[in-house]
Amino acid sequence: MPKYDEDLHQSDSLIWTACRQIVGIVERWFSDVILHDKDGNEIDSDHPLDVALQNQWTVTGDSTTGTAKTITKAAEEGKKHVITAFEAVISEAAASTDIIITLEDDDTVIWKTVIGNATARGGRVFVSGVNIEITGDATLNSSADTSIVSLNMSGYTR
Questions:
Q1: Which residue segment(s) compose the domain that 97 sits in?
Q2: Stronger pLDDT, 23 or 108, i.e. the higher one
Q3: Cα-Cα-Cα-Cα dihedral of 120, 108, 72, 85, to 10°?
Q4: C or N terminus of the chain, fewer CB within 10 Å?
Q5: What pLDDT is recorded for position 23?
Q6: Are residues 82 and 10 part of one domain?
Q7: Residue 24 lies in a domain
Q8: CATH number of the domain that 120 lies in?
Q9: pLDDT tens digits along 125-149
Q10: How far apart are CA 95 and CA 19, in angstroms?
Q11: Side by side, which strands form the sheet with 81-90?
Q12: Does residue 67 sit in the same domain as residue 124?
């Protein structure tokens, strides 16, 4: 009977050795795999997808009754902000006037719209799936109204 136990332990040892060798091969294979985007471009630390994931940000803010609201992602020297989504929402009573919404690169208006007078609570402007490059301060503004307006802006810096 002892010979059987010795053979069994020896067999277990060989299985573990083989498993460790397979794990080593797989680890080396994974370290050699290079990921690519849908166009075949290598995804590395300089690739826009990797940069975007590493440098994401979100800025939010609510106006107070009767006041305008501005949210800003400050410029960073030698870098650009890329806005991927922004939103303005009436978060209290219906709008009493037209509410002007602007997206600006420093003081240059690059996008503008209106949430109309009497738009009910929950009325919104929502833009997503964009890549708007900003070279200065990224600013989202709403004009003053008796309602409260919530502003949200997200993107990444590269």
A1: 48-157
A2: 108
A3: 60
A4: N
A5: 67
A6: no
A7: yes
A8: 2.60.120.340
A9: 999 999 999 999 999 999 998 889 9
A10: 67
A11: 56-62, 149-157, 81-90, 124-134
A12: yes
Tokens standing for residue 45? 């630390």
Asked whether the beta carbons of 83 and 138 are under 8 A apart, the reply is yes
Q: Say how far apart CA 158 and CA 49 lie, in whole Å.
A: 11
State the burial class of residue 18 (Cβ atoms within 10 Å of its Cβ: 0-12, 13-18, 19+). Answer: exposed
Instruction: Say if residue 8's pLDDT is above 50.
Output: no
- 8 A C-beta contact, residue 155 and residue 56: yes
Q: What is the pLDDT of residues 66-107, one digit of tens each?
A: 899 999 999 999 999 999 999 999 998 899 999 999 999 998
SS3 track for the chain: CHHHHHHHHHHHHHHHHHHHHHHHHHHHHHHHCCCECCCCCECCCCCHHHHHHHCEEEEEEECCCCCCEEEEECCCCCCCEEEEEEEEEECCCCCCCCEEEEEEECCEEEEEEEECCCCCCCCEEEEEEEEEEECCCEEEEECCCCCCEEEEEEEEEC
